[in-house]
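In keeping with the milestone schedule agreed at the kick-off meeting, the structural modelling team has produced records for the first pair of proteins. Each record is given below as a sequence line and a structure-token line. The laboratory manager (R.T.) confirmed that both were archived under the project's standard naming scheme.
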Amino acid sequence: MQNVKQQLTLGVIIGNRNFFPDSLVADARIEILSVLEDQNIRPVLLDPEDTKLGGVETFQDAMKCAELFKKHRDEIVGVLVLLPNFGDERGVAETLKLAKLDVPVLVQAYPDDLEKLDVARRRDSWCGKISVCNNLYQYGIKYTTTTKHVVHPSDPSFIADLNDFMAVCRVVRGLRNVRIGAVGARPGGFNTVRYSEKILQRNGISVTTVDLSEILGNAERLTKDDSAVLDRLEKIKAYTPTGLTPEDVLIQIAKLDVVLNQFMEVNALDATAIQCWTSIQQNYGCNVCTSMSMMSENMLPSACEVDVTGTLSMYAMQLASGSPSALVDWNNNYASDEEKCVLFHCGNWAKSFLPDIKMSTAPILGTTVGEENTFGALDGRTPAMPLTYGRISTDDPKGIIKVYIGEGELTDDALNTFGNRAVAKINNLQGLMQYVCKNGFEHHVVMNASKTAGILKEALGNYMGWEVYHHEG
């Protein structure tokens, strides 16, 4: 399973308070810079010459730090508040208020040493952290706290919290600017994938639409000798064994792939949701699954049946984990096991989920459009791996975005069927299904090979302000 995490930039505020030892601020600066370098995080913070030891205490300090953050506004994805001593809660809150970054904030505080509680060496950060958080709450600034109330930056617990926080920052930054392409109309029989484009836009999520006829028309105008077609054909054959797929159909798939990629590039799209049936099969003669799989594998998630909020869910999970996601159906019970079920789709999951990937047909769809018109679907079984699942949906009557998320496992249990398939084990699966049904969620869910439900809960609930149900079984 590929994992892609680019270097991110973090604003750092080192709090200080005048009647606590200043040397603690100097030590904290050295310690946090070392940690951030080890974690490939680029820091933006005051130099020791800018304020007393580079800390933030007075309103003048806050103004200097805020101006520095403003200069790096386009780079900073989050802010780390470091409290080597009690810290000045006003200085921290005023810095964030003046900077107006509107990014996630992580609050850390150092632990005291029982042998160093004299006036010259005590920190009192335990108390100071409560005061800082109280002020952030008063100012309406959203923030995240560490697992341990006080923790040294070198502690493995803090390193884990920091990496989770950076993932939260990736999700929030990504979702506030995401651009999704909706290719074609949803299948007529799928009211379940209806959504509110207006509610999404209010949350920074843009949808660009295109009629399927434009995509198919542009594909038909290409020839088998066009260099772009030959290039995509080569990439398709390198991506998956093509099985019994006829060469002329592979060329059709390559042409469609060229046009879809051009549409994404021209419109600067991060993800797509495609009318994968039945017009493509009836009017063009193949499935678009392989192209969708290749896009998802390359971190440009693509969802079936014009499920725009489905691909939004894929993108959110991808941002949280740094690995591809797949849109699946909650499809079948697994015999009489009440904590297992079968996940399924015709065949467009990212290659990372399909070690035995091969190109095939879509037999179920073929019963209505002719199986010879469904080449391009992928066949493959997902083996045992970690599972984070979930779904983002617009609730139009309430005017909100709602989410459910949770974790489980994908298993190696026997499964004799076709298409893209997996067996999932989830604690209290029956209770989860009751929640999904009673709250009007779609039959589509997204899976990701990670354990990132906590990250998603923090990003989507605390910072995006969406209604989140975390199923913990």
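The second protein of the pair:
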Amino acid sequence: MNNSRVYDMSPPQLPLATLIGRELRNEKIEKPLVRHGHAGLAKKGEDYFLIKPDCERIPGNSASSFSVFAIFDGHNGVSAAIFTKENLLNHVMSAIPQGIGREEWLHALPRALVAGFVKTDIDFQRRGMYLIILSIRETSGTTVTFVVVDGLTVTVASVGDSRCILDTQGGVVSLLTVDHRLEENAEERERVTASGGEVGRLNVCGGTEVGPLRCWPGGLCLSRSIGDMDVGEFIVPIPHVKQVKLPTTGGRLIIASDGIWDALSSEIAAQSCRGLPAELAAKLVVKEALRSRGLKDDTTCVVVDIIPPDHFVAPPSPKKKQNMLTSLIFGKKNQNSMNKLTNKLSSVGVVEELFEEGSAMLAERLGPDVPFKPSSGLMRCAVCQVDQPSEGLSVNAGLFFSPTSKPWEGPFLCADCRIKKDAMEGKRPSHPKATA
């Protein structure tokens, strides 16, 4: 690839003053209010959460603000959950090109989330290898449900079986995540076995199989997570990502660990707290889950209300009783008015899907863009953001003379991230297995 093509694919670098001016002009469109609440009960103490309502795309400019909410449900220890909570947001933000406006930023966010999840997993497993050298066994892992709220646009990235649902006016409940449980996800079972793993239940005396489906080695019930060094690398950190635009009436997000969802359906969770402020709503969801199933797992819930000012459409008031003559004269007119109001409510209650992708193939998720540093002539790794010579590092590079190999096309990966990609696809391991 020559340099002129690379320049064309790079995002324009705008002066900071230009960006701030653009944000200030957009500020005329009032941003919705974001209110949040949290509640939880600990059984093992492996659930963690993140609430950051004051993030800024342009440092120092409140007009560029966005909010982040996340839940990390750890297993086999807390190290992976804590590490992910402390590092994931920074990795995601570093994967978004600098000097771009809000719309470009939102467009780049799904890809950046994929890069940030994979980068976090690589760093944690690298830390785990260091601990192995010190004869310390590191086998913890974590699910992640990571939510970015920017105005009425909500972007959700998830691995594992924590969940995020959206409740909008009219009682319409939408699931914004996909559960990565082997028991329930046939597509993930096929991917794991195709990558070299085995899927089966625990065997007890007499050959009886018990419990949920698990992948072997490791015995994990999930097909995607961050961490889990004792499990094959077909258990990937590549998230399902969904981006939606809420209706002008806003909506409520309920983000929770499986301690909630094993007890409550999405609809019941939403119904249990409607009409309540976010803080009380989170407590009610946890209380309902406890009442339904008892405390059998860590139970964590974050409720986020997105409330646009001056955009609420009041529901129609109940009809008054009319005599027959009045009904005959005005009935048709009233019915037409009701139909118009119903249509208006329907139009403002539509959730617009902007993006959704759940593939576990890294090349598909990173897309064709090629981050490039003109001053150095180096290609930047799409995952870890390290500058490297471009030759031979494309994510599309394969066997020499292979018809599917396109080493000149981006995105580009550094050597370490290329090894990780191959390991996730079952081509080769990136590190020896952790052993006791």
